[in-house]
Specification:
Elements lengths: L1 H17 L4 E9 L8 H23 L4 H13 L20 E7 L5 E7 L5 H11 L4 E3 H10 L13 H15 L17 E6 L5 E7 L20 E3 L4 E7 L1 H6 L2 H12 L3 H15 L4 E7 L4 E5 L3 E7 L5 E6 L1
Parallel strand pairs: 3-4
Antiparallel strand pairs: 1-5, 1-11, 2-3, 2-6, 5-6, 7-8, 8-9, 9-10, 11-12
Helix pairs in contact: 2-3, 3-4, 8-9
Length: 329
């Protein structure tokens, strides 16, 4: 009996020692934010919501839950907040609609799911998860995605659920600029605020997951799909290398396959995550005039939050349990 108990305790110790450190990192969009106009109260709102998102995901990881569940939980908090350009706080298209995109990827299996151009899904990240878990596909869009979500009994809302006065004013400002012949961020001439949200998590089994959710760009043409639901562009996860979620002017992230390119750097050039992220975001993207940033972590729990814009809402709980949130550089 004593021998059996000793073996059991030894097995438990070995399991504990072999468990991977858990870690989670999030972003709430990168771009140009006017620090002078962002009141202390508003900044506190961002920090508070970022922390709530981190804690929602980290609580799952600490209980031995999966990185997929953690990413999903963290993103839902941000989708439900009007602060970010995802879910409730989504921006408007040129037609005055809210069209949302989201994706999720499992670094263990390389399976992924995504939705694009949806208008009635309260939490697009849940639909992305359902596409991954319950279809042979990766990406569903528009009415097809919404019909699928309805069959999966996901929560649907009326389109006006996504209306916020702040985003509506942004659309009117965009229209005024266009009417006056001024450049907007759709012209790629300068960085504006891209409020896309994302999360990457590492669970105790060593599995990495990444997810991204967005309302796109203010004034985008209706039907436009950005990088957020495109696996390899806005989202990528591979246990061998890293997990990445992107935010920025999506067309550039699609053209340069940013999320996958960082992973490829690590796999083929033997770069560290920090080296790969810096090279892609600060050199390759900058050279192409692409604005934005990325969050990521590797199998050892190393975290990066790299951006080439004046600000990026971001936060992490590292492998030592230290929580940090930030907005500006």
């Amino acid at each position: 009996m004593y021998k059996l108990l000793t073996l059991a305790l030894l097995a438990l110790a070995m399991t504990t020692e072999s468990a991977s450190p858990v870690a989670i990192v999030i972003h709430g969009g990168a771009g140009r934010m006017d620090k002078a106009k962002l009141t202390p109260a508003r900044q506190k709102e961002y920090h508070t919501t970022l922390e709530a998102s981190l804690r929602a995901g980290h609580a799952i990881l600490k209980k031995g839950g999966s990185s997929l569940d953690a990413v999903q939980a963290a993103i839902i908090v941000m989708e439900d907040s009007p602060l970010f350009n995802a879910g409730k706080g989504a921006v408007f298209t040129s037609e005055g609609r809210n069209e949302l995109d989201a994706s999720l990827m499992d670094g263990r299996t390389l399976e992924a799911g995504a939705v694009g151009g949806v208008t009635t899904l309260k939490n697009p990240i849940l639909a992305a998860r359902a596409v991954m878990d319950h279809t042979p596909h990766v990406l569903l869009t528009n009415q097809g995605a919404e019909a699928f979500a309805k069959n999966m009994r996901l929560e649907l809302v009326k389109p006006n659920y996504f209306h916020t006065d702040h985003r509506w004013r942004q659309l009117q400002e965009w229209k005024k600029k266009k009417a006056e012949g001024k450049n907007t961020f759709l012209d790629g001439k300068h960085a504006d605020y891209f409020g896309t949200v994302g999360c990457v998590a590492l669970d105790a089994k060593g599995n990495i997951a990444a997810g991204t959710s967005t309302g796109g760009l203010t004034g985008k043409q209706f039907g436009r799909i950005g990088d957020s639901p495109i696996i390899g562009a806005g989202t990528y996860a591979n246990n061998k290398t890293c997990g990445i979620s992107c935010t920025g002017h999506g067309e550039y992230f699609i053209r340069y396959a940013v999320a996958h390119d960082i992973s490829a750097h690590m796999e083929y050039k033997n770069s560290t995550l920090a080296e790969a992220a810096r090279d892609i975001v600060q050199i390759k993207l900058k050279k192409a005039k692409g604005s934005g940033g990325i969050i990521g972590l590797d199998a050892k729990g190393n975290i990066v939050m790299e951006f080439n814009t004046p600000a990026m809402n971001r936060g992490s709980i590292d492998k030592n349990g230290k929580l940090t949130t930030g907005i500006f550089k």
